[in-house]
Write a structure and sequence with these properties.
The protein has helices at 3-16, 20-29, 31-36, 52-59, 62-88, 96-100, 124-143, 157-168, 175-199, 210-231. The chain is an all-alpha fold. Helix 1 crosses helix 5. The chain starts with a helix and ends in a 6-residue tail after the last helix.
Length: 237
């Protein structure tokens, strides 16, 4: 295995806080992680056995991997601070904000195999509400470096919360009312996902905490499954 595969695998393990088996499974499931490791094509088979991580750790110690991650985080934060300062003092003539958007781009990793414990997965109105709340938290974090420079994406959180509670407080809401509430929450979540995708182009995803990063991995899949169930009138208890 190349150094890129060995180092990348250990970074994934440390960054997501996974076991050796979970790390290999994440890589198998996620085409973005395979691309990160340098694989040219997606393969749904395990790229290597989890026992290989033992050899990776012998080649690259945990201390070294942690130092590299800390350095990457530090560099990303410094770039974000530098870009924010540049945006404050630049105009359209020198291409400050416009050019800044081309730098420090993050990638939106989408996967559902690493499910955080605080999201009730996989279904119903409560699930959508939780996913929406987590997406709002991520938007807040990614927008923070651009506060006062860029307009924050609208997410209608108060309205969405009010609409959720109006149905959630009912013991047995009518099916039509519940379906309408799910449709609205899907719309709010879809809007938030688009905002996160746009923000990830100008704010490094390394700004997110480990918990937020894990939530981000699952939110998109929650939306996809819920949208499919809504379109096909399916329900899971």
């Amino acid at each position: 295995m190349s150094v890129r595969v060995a180092l990348g695998t250990l970074i994934i393990k440390e960054r997501l806080g996974l076991s050796d088996d979970e790390t290999v499974e994440q890589i198998r499931e996620n085409p973005y992680l395979q691309y990160f490791l340098g694989f040219k094509d997606y393969n749904d088979e395990k790229p290597f056995d989890s026992s290989m991580l033992v050899h990776f750790r012998k080649r690259l110690s945990n201390d070294l991997v942690c130092q590299l991650i800390e350095q990457v985080n530090h560099n990303a934060l410094e770039q974000t601070k530098s870009k924010s300062k540049k945006d404050d003092g630049s105009d359209d003539t020198d291409g400050g904000p416009a050019n800044a958007q081309k730098k420090n781009k993050g990638k939106l990793l989408i996967d559902a195999t690493c499910t955080p414990a605080d999201i009730t997965f996989p279904t119903d109105l409560k699930t959508l509400n939780k996913a929406r709340e987590h997406s709002e938290e991520i938007i807040d974090k990614l927008h923070r470096p651009h506060k006062g420079v860029r307009k924050k994406p609208r997410n209608y959180r108060k309205k969405a919360r009010k609409e959720f509670l109006a149905v959630a407080k009912s013991k047995k809401p009518p099916k039509a009312k519940l379906r309408k509430a799910i449709r609205k929450q899907l719309g709010y979540l879809r809007r938030n996902l688009k905002s996160i995708d746009e923000l990830s182009k100008i704010s490094s995803l390394l700004l997110l905490s480990k918990r937020q990063y894990k939530n981000l991995l699952v939110i998109h899949d929650v939306y996809s499954q819920q949208q499919w169930m809504y379109d096909n009138r399916e329900k899971k208890n």
